[in-house]
Automatic annotation (TrEMBL), chain A:
Protein name according to UniProt: Electron transfer flavoprotein subunit alpha
Co-factor: note: Binds 1 FAD per dimer.
Keyword Electron transport: yes
Species this protein is from: Agromyces bauzanensis
Annotated InterPro entries: DHS-like_NAD/FAD-binding_dom (IPR029035), ETF_a/b_N (IPR014730), ETF_a/FixB (IPR001308), ETF_asu_C (IPR014731), ETF_asu_C_CS (IPR018206), Rossmann-like_a/b/a_fold (IPR014729)
Keyword match Electron transport: yes
One BP term from GO: fatty acid beta-oxidation using acyl-CoA dehydrogenase
Database matches in SMART domains: ETF
Role of this protein: The electron transfer flavoprotein serves as a specific electron acceptor for other dehydrogenases. It transfers the electrons to the main respiratory chain via ETF-ubiquinone oxidoreductase (ETF dehydrogenase).
Names of the cofactor(s): FAD
Xref: SUPFAM superfamilies: Adenine nucleotide alpha hydrolases-like (SSF52402), DHS-like NAD/FAD-binding domain (SSF52467)
Pfam families recorded: ETF, ETF_alpha
Quaternary structure, from the entry: Heterodimer of an alpha and a beta subunit.
Gene it is expressed from: etfA
Lineage top rank: taxon: Bacteria
Automatic annotation (TrEMBL), chain B:
Function in brief: The electron transfer flavoprotein serves as a specific electron acceptor for other dehydrogenases. It transfers the electrons to the main respiratory chain via ETF-ubiquinone oxidoreductase (ETF dehydrogenase).
Pfam families, sorted: ETF
Gene that produces this protein: fixA
Keyword Transport: yes
UniProt name for this protein: Electron transfer flavoprotein subunit beta
Keywords annotated in UniProt: Electron transport, Transport
Gene3D superfamilies hit by this protein: HUPs
Organism ancestry: Bacteria, Bacillati, Actinomycetota, Actinomycetes, Micrococcales
GO cellular component labels: cytosol
Domain Electron transfer flavoprotein alpha/beta-subunit N-terminal stretches: 23-212
Alphabetical list of InterPro entries matching this protein: ETF_a/b_N, ETF_b, ETF_beta_N, Rossmann-like_a/b/a_fold
Keyword Electron transport: yes
Subunit structure: Heterodimer of an alpha and a beta subunit.
Family per record: Belongs to the ETF beta-subunit/FixA family.
Molecular functions (GO terms): electron transfer activity
Length: 328, 257
């Protein structure tokens, strides 16, 4: 099969450690469908590609190129970059979309450097005009909107996880196997991988539609349970300020802000968070912000749509029971 | 062992940061320029290794000439020498040009290990370490939350939402580190005085065989820029015993609960 669509957008799929298609793929394929025809690439260990390819087709991939190689679990970044270079050579895409994840950034960096392609990072949206593909960025914590494009050739784009809401229509499964030549580039060895068993049924922070965050105002790791209770009442993910993380109330993976996760949920509830500029940089693009803080001068109120000056330990339990009352 | 730490001057995230709406470039005068904290942590990894082992630590940066004072802080912290690539032609350089220029400077300086932060606070692209590794043809070990440096190898752990990966590679290599690594040391008076006598090399693009105006290489260009109107404050009430109920009503009204 060499009859590729005229406007192919190459999407690099990511797999979870258990061999499922990563959640980021639906957004990437959705973004690709806005600017062209999504052609996906899956790079997996032997026997793992069929399931991924089927899920990718259901998420809108017109065609799925698959590369099965054991190197992908033994060596970091390079085997995937090799596969991507081979796929791009046959597809000749207008753009290459990659998740702005740890692995995605490495592969995007290697691929763009190897092929001397223009690279756009942390895009929150994509569009196309007469001259080609345009990446949209939200920079300096959402203070500016910036567009970027390639002077010529394909634009390689890392797309912020959870930023694109568009979804592509399901396509019939069409798989094509590639057997790329290894580049022989030096790579780090993956010595082991220890999976975190997901015990939480709560939504993931990245890409969550609702987030409840706690700050130093919670006072202790035990009291932080209040944040969890409200989050569960609202079906929200749990976030935290850097102060709460530094104080050891909650692991760093929950940190929202300049140096943590950037979120753009429909609802962001800030409990006992002062709203230092570094925290606001990670959440001020939320559609609606609610804040509770006992300090009336806390900067968080400058960005809150609804703010309550009060004690989180009286306001929040009342809020939880009021919401529970409504559900009855 | 020669360790090069890549550092970056960024606008202080404790203040307002501005982009110039005419040029699209960072408005360096609008905010306090500081050494990016994650780069300081990267330097700490190198310095603490050098404290206990035979190692030469070089700080390197690509930045306008006036950033020299910021880069010098790396010398005050304990690096043995500094290399700054400063060239007006590199203003507004995209990631590709930045990576090619830094890779050339790294090659010219010579290295066993390159250490960077995982993400800068201004661009937050996080792609440069892998780009450097590709151009230098060495392994990348990125986003490490723990690092062990040996005489001829480097290894470390990388934490993600899915789990922890153990990585290792023979030197030379490029690594990037996360905030999980220790805070950087403060430069002391002795260090600040000593920094004035340490070698500080300034290179232009031409010294590295780089032509910033080379239009035959694809580049990423900014095509539009707009400032978002600042978010305005909404309703603020003081809790009079019904604050929780009021929030519940607000959420229901806005179909958020």
């Amino acid at each position: 099969m060499t009859d590729y669509p005229a406007d192919p957008i190459l999407v690099l799929l990511e797999a979870t450690p258990t061999g499922e298609l990563a959640k980021s793929a639906a957004g990437l394929l959705g973004a690709a469908s806005l600017i062209g025809t999504p052609v996906a690439l899956a790079v997996t260990a032997a026997g793992r590609s069929q399931a991924i390819a089927e899920q990718a087709a259901a998420a809108g991939a017109e065609r799925v190129l698959v590369v099965e190689t054991e190197a992908v679990v033994a060596r970091l970044s390079v085997p995937i970059a090799d596969a991507l270079a081979a796929a791009a050579a046959v597809v000749a895409p207008d753009a290459v979309l990659i998740s702005n994840s740890m692995e995605g950034r490495d592969v995007a960096g290697r691929f763009a450097a190897r092929t001397s392609a223009a690279l756009a990072v942390d895009a929150v949206g994509l569009s196309r005009d007469a001259e080609g593909v345009i990446a949209h960025h939200s920079v300096y914590g959402g203070a500016y909107n910036v567009d970027s494009a390639a002077t010529f050739g394909p634009l390689v784009v890392t797309v912020r996880e959870g930023a694109v809401e568009a979804r592509a229509e399901a396509r019939p499964v069409a798989i094509e196997t590639l057997e790329p030549q290894p580049s022989g580039k030096a790579a780090a060895s993956i010595e082991s991988f220890e999976s975190v068993t997901a015990t939480s049924t709560r939504p993931e922070l990245k890409g969550a539609t609702k987030v409840v965050s706690g700050g130093r105002g919670l006072g202790s790791a035990e009291s932080f349970a209040l944040v969890e209770q409200l989050a569960d009442t609202l079906g929200a993910a749990i976030g935290a300020s850097r102060a709460a993380v530094d104080a050891g109330y909650i692991p760093q993976s929950h940190q929202v802000g300049q140096t943590g996760v950037s979120v753009s949920p429909h609802l962001y509830v800030a409990l006992g968070i002062s709203g230092a500029i570094q925290h606001r940089a990670g959440m001020q693009t939320a559609k609606t912000i609610v804040a509770v803080n006992k300090d009336p001068d806390a900067p968080i109120f400058e960005v809150a749509d609804f703010g309550v000056v009060g004690d989180v330990f009286t306001v929040v339990p009342q809020l939880i029971s009021a919401l529970a009352e409504r559900k009855k | 062992m020669k360790i090069i730490v890549i550092v970056k001057e960024v606008p202080d995230t404790y203040g307002e940061r501005k982009l110039d709406l005419e040029t699209g470039l960072a408005d360096r005068a609008a905010s306090e320029p500081v050494l990016d904290e994650i780069g300081e942590r990267a330097l700490e990894v190198a310095l603490s290794h050098a404290d206990a082992n035979e190692a030469e630590v070089v700080v390197m940066s690509m930045a306008p000439e006036r950033a020299a004072a910021t880069i010098r802080k790396g010398l005050a912290m304990g690096a043995a020498s500094a290399v700054q690539v400063a060239d007006p032609g590199l203003a507004g350089a995209d990631l590709g040009l930045t990576a090619r220029t830094l890779a050339a400077a790294i090659r010219k300086t010579g290295f066993d290990l390159v250490i960077t932060g995982n993400l800068s606070t201004d661009g937050s692209g996080g792609v440069l370490p892998a780009m450097l590794a590709e151009l230098l043809d060495v392994p990348n070990l990125t986003a490490l939350s723990s690092v062990e440096i040996a005489a001829d190898s480097v290894s470390g752990g990388r934490d993600s939402d899915d789990g922890t990966m153990r990585l290792s590679a023979k030197l030379p290599a490029v690594i990037s580190i996360t905030e999980a690594l220790p805070d950087a040391r403060f430069p002391n008076f002795k260090g600040i005085m000593a920094a004035k006598k340490k070698p500080f090399e300034t290179l232009a693009a031409a010294d590295l065989g780089i032509d910033p105006q080379d239009l035959s290489v694809a580049a990423s260009i900014m095509t539009a820029i707009a400032e978002k109107p600042p978010r305005s404050a909404g309703v603020k009430i003081t809790d009079e015993g019904d604050g929780g109920v009021k929030i519940a009503e607000f959420l229901v009204e806005n179909r958020l609960a």
